[in-house]
TrEMBL record:
<comment type="similarity">
    <text>Belongs to the AB hydrolase superfamily. Lipase family.</text>
</comment>
<keyword id="KW-0378">Hydrolase</keyword>
<feature type="active site" description="Charge relay system">
    <location>
        <position position="353"/>
    </location>
</feature>
<keyword id="KW-0325">Glycoprotein</keyword>
<dbReference type="InterPro" id="IPR025483">
    <property type="entry name" value="Lipase_euk"/>
</dbReference>
<dbReference type="GO" id="GO:0006629">
    <property type="term" value="P:lipid metabolic process"/>
</dbReference>
<dbReference type="GO" id="GO:0016042">
    <property type="term" value="P:lipid catabolic process"/>
</dbReference>
<dbReference type="GO" id="GO:0016298">
    <property type="term" value="F:lipase activity"/>
</dbReference>
<feature type="active site" description="Charge relay system">
    <location>
        <position position="384"/>
    </location>
</feature>
<feature type="signal peptide">
    <location>
        <begin position="1"/>
        <end position="21"/>
    </location>
</feature>
<feature type="domain" description="Partial AB-hydrolase lipase">
    <location>
        <begin position="42"/>
        <end position="101"/>
    </location>
</feature>
<keyword id="KW-0732">Signal</keyword>
<feature type="active site" description="Nucleophile">
    <location>
        <position position="179"/>
    </location>
</feature>
<dbReference type="Pfam" id="PF04083">
    <property type="entry name" value="Abhydro_lipase"/>
</dbReference>
<protein>
    <recommendedName>
        <fullName>Lipase</fullName>
    </recommendedName>
</protein>
<dbReference type="InterPro" id="IPR006693">
    <property type="entry name" value="AB_hydrolase_lipase"/>
</dbReference>
<keyword id="KW-0443">Lipid metabolism</keyword>
């Protein structure tokens, strides 16, 4: 989740700095292709020897999204009829979250090895999904960035889920999301309840809906000034928050590599976002992490989270009194009707998560009618980012997630 205090995070980052349906392992690519610049997710998957497809889907409001499918590996061949697992990333991140840790550790690979047909989603606005049928994300004046995570839940997830099910011939799938990948799911399942029947099981990793008790210093410092930030950004014509660029990637590689005296500074920046847990951060992987994140997002996504922290409610975007009356027929935005979420949901949480406080996760749980349960990660230091990047995520978390999926097949 990218609820980071803008000025502080930008400074910190500055300091630390279609292959279309191609089902081939990296080893079978022509030699001349191995040095061709590729999408990060695709490059990682093919490097690790897994099969890969790239798919695109257009949402009802015109965004063109990229999904990646990992249907098998040399050790677990592609075959028809595999159960489908769909994985969704957090804010300021991308599908690379689920493969970046490598074979034997990354959730996507573990699911493929367990016999699942794995699909990786990408939300509008990140490095994989910066296209629209009309709007140019890089234009000086554009409506491309006029969205928050509400639209990701209302438009993006249904479009990707429908495409995945139609392509595979299934009527339902398993869903796992991290941070904003959980927020957007609860938007979809509450505002478009017909999608609940398309979900065999949902696994919320560091679930974010209610936020009033989070401990992140970035969010707590930024949230009181959210209205001013929104106005300033609008006046400046800045709609994208922390876009991915070569300078950040190069900075991460140079300042955060193993030989750099600044590597521990890089590590502590990550800890300040999601909580401290030094043993679970693979420092050698930091440059790759910073190549993946920030992957781009709208300012409105950040603002929407800050609004949730300020209000203590899980509700739609607050456009201000006048626009709220026009859009919602009330001066305040409506709460999301979580009682309409009927898919089986497992909430995986931790005590040291600075962005998904235990009390807020319990509040979310109290609103769900068909919860599988609350599942605490046993490591008392487990933080928000460990859910996707932790060295021992397999043993602390993923084995349990996969066993639950198996139970609902």
């Amino acid at each position: 989740m990218a609820n980071h205090y803008h000025a502080v995070f930008v400074l910190a980052i500055a300091v630390i700095g279609m292959v279309s349906a191609a089902v081939v392992p990296r080893s079978l690519l022509p030699t001349g292709h191995t040095n061709v610049p590729m999408n990060l997710t695709a490059d990682i998957v093919l490097r690790d020897g897994y099969y890969l497809e790239q798919h695109q889907v257009t949402t009802a409001d015109g965004y063109i999204l990229t999904m990646f499918r990992i249907p098998g590996s040399p050790a677990n061949p592609v075959r028809q009829g595999k159960n489908v697992a769909f994985l969704m990333h957090g804010l300021l991140s991308s599908s690379a979250d689920y493969v970046i840790s490598g074979s034997g550790r990354a959730l996507a690979y573990l699911l493929v090895d367990a016999g699942y047909d794995v699909w990786l989603g990408n939300a509008r606005g990140n490095t994989n999904s910066r296209r629209h049928i009309f709007h140019d994300p890089d234009a000086r004046s554009t409506n491309f960035w006029d969205f928050s995570w509400h639209e990701i839940g209302y438009f993006d997830l249904p479009a990707m889920i429908d495409y995945t099910l139609a392509y595979t011939g299934h009527t339902s799938l398993h869903y796992a999301g991290h941070s904003q990948g959980t927020t957007s799911f609860f938007v979809m399942a509450s505002t478009r309840p017909d999608y609940n029947k398309k979900i065999r099981s949902m696994h919320a990793l560091a679930p974010v809906a209610f936020m009033s008790n989070l401990r992140s210093p970035f969010v707590r410092a930024f949230a009181p000034f959210v209205n001013q930030l929104e106005w300033i950004m609008s006046m400046l014509g800045v709609n994208e928050f922390l876009p991915s660029n070569e300078m950040m990637i190069l900075g991460g590689q140079r300042l955060c590599e193993d030989e750099s005296p600044f590597q521990e500074v890089c590590a502590n920046v990550l800890f300040l976002i999601g909580g401290f847990n030094s043993p679970q951060l693979n420092r050698t992987m930091i440059p790759a992490l910073l190549e993946n994140a920030p992957a781009g997002a709208s300012v409105n996504q950040l603002v929407h989270y800050a609004q949730g922290y300020n209000s203590g409610r899980f509700r739609q975007y607050d456009f201000g009194l006048t626009l709220n009356l026009i859009r919602y027929g009330s001066v305040r935005p409506p709460d999301y009707p979580l009682h309409r979420v009927t898919a089986p949901v497992a909430l995986h949480f931790s005590d040291n998560d600075w962005l998904a406080a235990v009390s807020d996760v319990r509040e979310l749980h109290s609103h769900l009618s068909n919860s599988i349960g609350l599942f605490r990660v046993s490591d008392p230091r487990w933080n928000h980012l460990d859910f996707v990047w932790g060295i021992d995520a397999n043993t602390f978390l993923y084995e349990r997630v996969i066993s639950f999926m198996d139970r609902f097949n």
